[in-house]
């Protein structure tokens, strides 16, 4: 009887945990004897059925200065992952976004003769585009979730595959409810990492204080302990939402969202928004020299126009965020955004991304030359 196909997955952030969980379920549908080992979070734990080797709480460092401060921990994690990968001997290593870590793991896996699939491309098209050459050397299958990424890789002689965006399955088409724009709360999404929450939540609280007549809800990130949010004294019109951002966004009349996957999740929920971002000044200064795209939010990148307002660094203040919320209460302004969100969903294509990615990965793992033990 043939041995089970062994899959090793590495996700390092909340969005990777979400998409990794959907991918693992899809692989298990195609391969009922699949054996998984992984780095991830609570959602992957639920999907796979056993705890991760390392939880994303120990992995989520963002920004140049934060990475430098935690370099020792990151290097220790890399060494641990390399040892564990070799001990498990998978047929395929599946890397999910998280490029600083995962691109190094791709190179190491190739040196061991392992098959490597990358699901959710690193945003090399935004900065350090020449890393595409290293990806071409070290990755057997690049599975993209944004349509323009395929043509980017084609410029480097690498055949990537567009599988669609997994959020289309996680977030079905929304029916705009007029009453929520009258009575719904305003959602505050300060980020999924401690560094983000530390910078963004105090600012968002100040916005709420300036609008005492409105109800605000802070979406607790799944990778952070609820106790962590008690470090801030929330005013009477602000409450902590503990039931997942999706349930909040489906009833919110507007949102302030820290840049990241959450911007696209908010758009797919048909919730008007402003994108807010304040980072470490050194990290942002370096990023501005390196980044080669016009926008920081996925919504604007996909639409290829400033569909939502991006309030960044000095442009991101309680006053500017409150002013943008006033704009979002205007029906004409709001309707323009909502029509744009419909266009974004159309650009992303059809659902089924996780199953298409799983089929490509299963085929790669089952082909000759896979390791496994």
Protein model, in words:
With about 375 residues, the protein is an alpha/beta fold. It folds into 2 domains: about 5-165 and about 350-365, 3-Layer(aba) Sandwich (Rossmann fold), CATH 3.40.50; about 180-345, 3-Layer(aba) Sandwich (Rossmann fold), CATH 3.40.50.2000. The protein is about 45% helix and about 15% strand. It has 18 helices and 12 strands. It has helices spanning about 15-30, 40-50, 65-70, 70-90, 100-110, 130-140, 150-155, 165-170, 180-185, 195-210, 225-230, 245-250, 260-270, 280-290, 300-305, 320-330, 330-345, 355-365; strands spanning about 5-10, 35-40, 90-95, 115-120, 140-145, 160, 185-190, 215-220, 240, 255-260, 275, 310. The strands form 2 sheets. A 6-stranded parallel beta sheet has the order 2-1-3-4-5-6, sandwiched between helices. The protein has a 6-stranded parallel beta sheet with strand order 9-8-7-10-11-12, with helices on both faces. Helix 13 (about 260-270) links the parallel strand 10 and strand 11. It is globular and about 60 Å long.
